[in-house]
Amino acid sequence: MGIKYSINEKFFDKWSDKMAYVLGFFYADGSMEDASYLRGKYIRFSSTDGELLNEIKMVLKSQHKIYKSPSYGTHKAKYLLRIGSHKLYKSLEKIGLYPNKSLTIQLPKIPKKYFFDFLRGYLDGDGCIYLEMAKGKKQEKIIKKLSTIFTSGSKIFLEELKEKLNNYCKIDKKYVYNSRRSYQLRYGTADSLKILDLIYKNKNDKLFLKRKYQTYQKYLEMKNGRMVK
Asked: Any idea what the CATH number is for the domain that residue 143 is in?
């Protein structure tokens, strides 16, 4: 028999800010494996950010190892957390997840209180905050545009996400774009600020991807007249 690692197997059974974040991240960068030949059921988290994956591991109270795959070409090194647990697997099934979910997932029923924790997790897994810069008359850097993009293989998921953001942030309806291998939901500066203000309003001290948060902070600092390199 393999080594039995401890973990909080009831983690996905009750909503909390941390559970919502981890679930959102899993919707973006997680997968499920029903390994019947091993009589095992596994859930897997992957990320190019080992520090964030370790924070998720700690929140799960997991003793499982994080494995690192080497970088090659333009591809960054990737970190993998693989957890064998029938109970966690079943909890995720109840929420609406299943193996090979990427093309057909739908937005789960999320308590409004935890919606933006979920969205922060999803953004960190399969989203982008982009700051487009330009040069001013005196060659100083000025902000041209702030963009927030959510990506998914499932058009239904993004359509449902769009409706929630329309309701919660009072945003005019956007289109879900077909971007070759996936679908995208894109927001410009004004709408991005409405969304990001709520995403980071109650962020946990450690459960957020620092580089994306720093892009948002850089915009706020430059907007307020502080030039940041």
From this structure: 3.10.28.10
Please list the alpha-helical segments (H only) found in 7-153.
17-29, 50-59, 86-95, 115-126
The Cα 150–Cα 162 span in angstroms is: 10
Phi, psi (deg, nearest 5) at residue 140: -80, 155
**β-pairing, 176-179 with 141-152?**
unpaired
Tokens 């502080």 found at: 226
pTM: 0.90
Q: Give how many domains the chain has, as a whole number.
A: 2
Any idea which of 31-40, 56-65, 78-87, 113-122 has the lowest mean pLDDT?
31-40
User: Does some domain include residue 2?
Assistant: no
- Alpha carbons 124 and 51: distance in angstroms, whole number: 13
Whether residues 142 and 66 fall in one domain = no
Token pair 């995720």 is at which residue? 92
Residues 63 and 30 in one domain: yes
